[in-house]
Every structure is written in C-alpha cells, then in structure tokens.
C-alpha cells in the first residue's frame, strides 16, 4: 500500500506538478523580461520628455527670423549693440559663410577690435551673458605697445533654425 501511494505520488508529480512548475518558471522569466522592457520604455519616455522640455525652452531663442540675409543682419545688429557699449575700436567685421546643417544654420562673424583690456573683457562678458544664445568660437588676443591695450580677434556664432524647420521635435516624427 505504501509502495502504491509513493508510486502514485511520483506519477502525479511527474505528470501534473512538474509541468506546472516548469510553466510557472517560464512565465516568471517572461514576466521579468517584460518588466525590464517596460522599465526601459519608461526611461526612454522620461528622456524624450526632458529633451522636448529643453527644446521647448530653446526653440524661441533659435527660431528663424527669415532668410540668411535677414538673420545675418539681425545678428550683426546684436553684435554692434554689444561692442558699441564698450570703449573699443573695431578694426574689421567680416561675415563668414553660413554653415547649414540638417535642422539649423550657424551664422558666424569675425570681429577684430582694439582697446583697453577691461573693455575687451566686458565685450566677452556681454556676449557670454547675452539673452540670445550667441557664443565666441575663436578668440585671439595680442598686447599692444600701449600699457593695458590689446588687439583682439573673435569669431562669434549664432545658431538659428532653418526656414520651415521651426517646430517641435514631434513635427519631425510626424513627417516620418
């Protein structure tokens, strides 16, 4: 009788319980894989939301005002306002070729000036703290024979969106 009970228990274990345990293990592994995938998707969405948020803040600053000529005119006016507030002499102002990327244009202007080092530093500070995102790409400074006077050369750049490209990142996805 005990032998029959043990044999019957072994048969029930092999036929019923063991397959159920294997299926439960497989389901648990699949569930863990799906949880990992869901966690990754949530992380991707958080990153996308952060990117969209940053882009929404930056977009008005780099929004296009029109054609290349209009943009460069606006940019040179902004720079003129900055250096005209300083007691520096501008020697040359050269508009460099516009570099066109996939979604934006990079405007560049080379400015050569001379003046007291404090005034040149004030110009640098005014560029770096300007509300529109302009920046100094290249900088060269040389001393003059007059004490504390320098000659400085800058390449200042500004990034603007391409015409027809202004809009959110979602516009790009909708086009796809």
Outline of the structure:
With 176 residues, the protein is an alpha+beta fold.
Can you tell me about this structure?
This protein folds into two domains: 1-62; 68-161, Ribosomal protein S6/Translation elongation factor EF1B (Alpha-Beta Plaits). 55% of the residues lie in helices and 28% in strands. The chain is built from four helices and four strands. A four-stranded antiparallel β-sheet has the order 1-2-4-3. 12% of the residues are buried.
Question: For the residues shown, what is the average pLDDT?
Answer: 82
Rg (CA only): 33 Å
Q: What is the percentage of strand-forming residues?
A: 25-35%
- Fraction in helix: 55-70%
SSE sequence, one letter per element: HHEEHEEH
Topology-level CATH name of the largest domain: Alpha-Beta Plaits
Question: What is the CATH homologous superfamily assignment of the largest domain?
Answer: Ribosomal protein S6/Translation elongation factor EF1B
- Number of separate domains: 2
Number of strands: 4
Total helices: the number is 4
Known CATH architecture of the largest domain: 2-Layer Sandwich
Structural category is alpha+beta
Unreliable spans: 165-176
Largest sheet: 4 strands, antiparallel
End-to-end separation in angstroms reads 73 Å
Report the principal-axis shape: rod-shaped
- Name of the top-level CATH class of the largest domain: Alpha Beta
């Amino acid at each position: 009788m005990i032998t029959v009970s043990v044999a019957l228990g072994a048969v029930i274990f092999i036929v019923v319980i063991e397959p159920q345990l294997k299926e439960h293990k497989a389901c648990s592994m699949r569930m863990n894989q799906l949880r990992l995938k869901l966690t990754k998707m949530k992380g991707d969405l958080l990153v996308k939301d952060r990117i969209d948020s940053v882009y929404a803040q930056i977009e008005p600053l780099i929004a296009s005002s029109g054609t290349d000529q209009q943009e460069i005119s606006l940019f040179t006016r902004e720079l003129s306002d900055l250096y005209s507030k300083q007691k520096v002499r501008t020697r040359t102002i050269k508009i460099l070729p516009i570099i066109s990327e996939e979604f934006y244009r990079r405007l560049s202007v080379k400015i050569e000036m001379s003046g007291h080092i404090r005034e040149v530093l004030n110009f640098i500070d005014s560029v770096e703290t300007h509300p529109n995102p302009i920046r100094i790409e290249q900088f060269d400074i040389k001393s003059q024979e007059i004490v504390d006077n320098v000659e400085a050369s800058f390449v200042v750049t500004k990034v603007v969106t391409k015409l027809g490209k202004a809009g959110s990142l979602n516009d790009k996805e909708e086009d796809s």
